[in-house]
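ok trying this again, last paste got cut off
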Amino acid sequence: MQAIIVAEAGSPANLLFTELSRPAIGPAEVLVKVKALSINPVDVKARASEDILFWIFGPQRPVILGWDLAGEVVAAGADVQALQPGDAVFGLVNFFGAGRAYAEYVAVPAHQLARKPAAVPYEAAAATSLAALTAWQALRQHGNVRPGSRVLIHGGAGGVGHFAIQLAKQLGAYVLTTASAQNREFVLSLGADEHVDYATEHFWERTPDVDFVLDTVGGEVLAHSLAVVRPGGTIITLPTPAIAPEVSAQATAQHVQLAFMMVASSGSDTQALADLLAQEAIRPHIAAIFPFAAMAEAHAYLETARPLGKVVVTL
């Protein structure tokens, strides 16, 4: 099978095509023939940074990047009962760890996958994996978001942000979001109740009494977010676990729960997203689709173009 490997961190040119044997599957795994995958900022960061590459994979080299996929089951392990050859599936694979999605065939623990709704294209399913799961787990498992909650989502036009807006509205929240002026209509079309232009406005002056903040930016944005959260509210930050001690101390003093969150692979959570996709209650916005042979171009695009929503690669 064809696969893309990284032998050392660097530019998109370090994504190297190679031929490998199809992976063997264990008794609890399925072999998926990949139809589409999506790439995320973590893909780009791992490819570009030796530190992040080591953080995820340790000293192993070369490695196969990628965690989001959609495809067809072609073989199932002896212990797998829920899936069988011919099933169309999608999900976030082995995150945090070696997903190895940049390949024609991927061995996946069956419990990490959900069935793809028949009417949903493979491209859309692949796009509704890491980013959508991040938003889902942040809002449902950490944010206690419920009808009437005031929710502030930073970076509402991005991969995680554009799902978070839709999911927060599904939960009955009043949604505020930061995005550029040019993306105002986009985030409002997703259901956001208020848009704040981060380039010309101070969100901490526009968005008081928030119950939950999803921080996709970090740095000063995280620090300023403390000014808008009610006592007893929650901030989930995604960019880094390295939260400044003074920010943590201020959160404690204000009785605000502040935590870093990393998404985890979950077939049950993915199935919940599959149900919402089938109902057209959420939809991924796909900024661009690249063929597998243009993976380097896809990385460069995600790294430099600041695309709306998601970038997808097809096989």
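PB: full thing came through this time. The chain has a mean pLDDT of 96.
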